[in-house]
TrEMBL record:
Keywords: Membrane, Transmembrane, Transmembrane helix. It comes from Sphingomonas japonica. The keyword Translocase does not apply. InterPro entries: Acyl_transf_3_dom, Glucan_succinyl_AcylTrfase. This is Acyltransferase 3 domain-containing protein. The lineage of its organism: Bacteria, Pseudomonadati, Pseudomonadota, Alphaproteobacteria, Sphingomonadales. Residues 18-369 form the Acyltransferase domain. Pfam families: Acyl_transf_3.
Length: 392
């Protein structure tokens, strides 16, 4: 079936693209499932089932390369729309500071300590939670084999905030000169399949250039390999939101993009299965990293197009689910960790354990959002607009 460019790609200043809203909701839902799957996977995570199941490797391997790329691309797209509605860079930046830094601070003070306590308790920490929170959580350095302070899943929030500031600064400093440069690049990318292969090549050069030189280390001031991947994805989403002329080009490359994702995904799964308990050689590590970049970008293109073609329509649940996404993100990780810590010693079979984790996490997320949205002072802490802003 040939997919034609949709008129919905030409998004006016104040027009909402429902497809991208649904894509954002789906991306965060997949993230929750991914983190539950990590409890059973063979790779390091916060907490593990005593039994590792290689059967989950293909599923996790096929999600891992593009799940975060999609989140940053969708966030970049949303940032462009927020900027258009904010009426200027200063208001946009102030809004992002409120909506990201306040929930980040709340999460670091209330949610992350629970996860860190569980991790040090499993390593022999002798005191209770209140003693840990008041005396040992607020430290810097290694403690019971864990590095403090730790962002845990909130790294995404602080990265998104930092990238927003970088983007705002670039727009303020670059001005018309930056607009001209981007416009020329977009004209060039519209030729042939450049929009598919050029970003893959650039991402691979950046990642491979740092691969054996700079360690992969999560942290705002240390994760340069992560920034070389996540920041371009956010910028790409930001540009796509304001460049309707690019969308027909995306529609024209959906077949090679889908094929690229399939081939790259097959390579990633094969390597992950072959090296479950050992490190791959440098050559295979480079192949794996390149395949991950290829799958990430090609999946972003395919999913953006699919969101327009099949999801660009409103529904009575869209606004509620869209609002609930950020609170769900804040609480889901802690809910999974606490539930796994409490239930894994009971030795349920894996399917029952998965069902318990899914049900408990879903319930915690729903309660966190439904209760928090009703309490005025709590709304900003869980990433929701104040009641006054919501009415406006």
């Amino acid at each position: 079936m040939r997919i034609e460019p949709s008129s919905a790609f030409t998004i006016r200043r104040n027009e909402r693209h429902y497809g991208l809203d649904w894509l954002r909701i789906a991306a965060f839902a997949l993230l929750i499932l991914y983190h539950i799957g990590m409890v059973f996977g063979p790779w390091p995570w916060v907490i593990h089932s005593p039994h590792r199941y290689w059967q989950v490797v293909p599923l996790l391997s096929l999600l891992s390369p593009w799940r975060l790329a999609l989140l940053f691309a969708v966030s970049g797209y949303a940032s462009r729309k927020l900027l258009a509605r904010s009426g200027g860079l200063r208001r946009f930046t102030a809004s992002r500071n409120r909506r990201l830094l306040i929930p980040f601070a709340f999460g670091m003070a209330v949610l992350v300590p629970i996860e860190m306590y569980i991790q040090v308790a499993d390593r022999g920490y002798p005191h209770g939670y209140l003693h840990f929170w008041s005396s040992d959580y607020w430290r810097w350095g290694s403690f019971y084999g864990k590095q403090f302070p730790a962002y845990e899943h909130l790294w995404f929030v602080i990265y998104l905030w930092a990238y927003t500031l970088v983007l705002a600064a670039a727009l303020r400093i670059g001005g018309a000169r930056l607009d001209c440069l981007v416009a020329r690049a977009l004209v060039w990318l519209r030729g042939g399949t450049r929009i598919l292969w050029v970003p893959i090549v650039l991402l691979s050069i950046a990642k491979l250039g740092m691969m054996f030189v700079i360690p992969d280390e999560t942290g705002l001031l240390t994760d340069w390999t992560g920034h070389a991947f996540y920041l371009p994805m956010l910028v790409a989403g930001f540009i796509l939101a304001g460049a309707p002329a690019l969308w027909p080009t995306i529609a024209s490359v959906w077949r090679p993009a889908a094929l690229t994702a399939i081939v790259a995904g097959s390579i990633i799964v094969a390597i992950d299965l072959a090296y479950l308990d050992t490190m791959p050689s440098h050559i295979w590590a480079m192949v794996d990293r390149t395949a991950r970049n290829a799958m990430a970008w090609s999946m972003v293109l395919v999913l953006f197009l699919a969101a327009d073609r099949f999801l660009n329509r409103d529904h009575r649940w869209r606004a509620t689910l869209g609002e609930a996404v950020f609170p769900f993100y804040l609480i889901h990780h802690s809910a999974i960790v606490v539930t796994a810590w409490a239930t894994l010693p009971l030795a349920f079979d894996p399917w029952s354990q998965f069902a318990i984790l899914l049900a408990a996490t879903g319930t915690a997320c729903a309660l966190f959002y439904l209760i928090g949205r009703r309490i005025g002072w709590l709304r900003p802490l869980i990433g929701l607009r104040s009641r006054v802003a919501s009415r406006g």
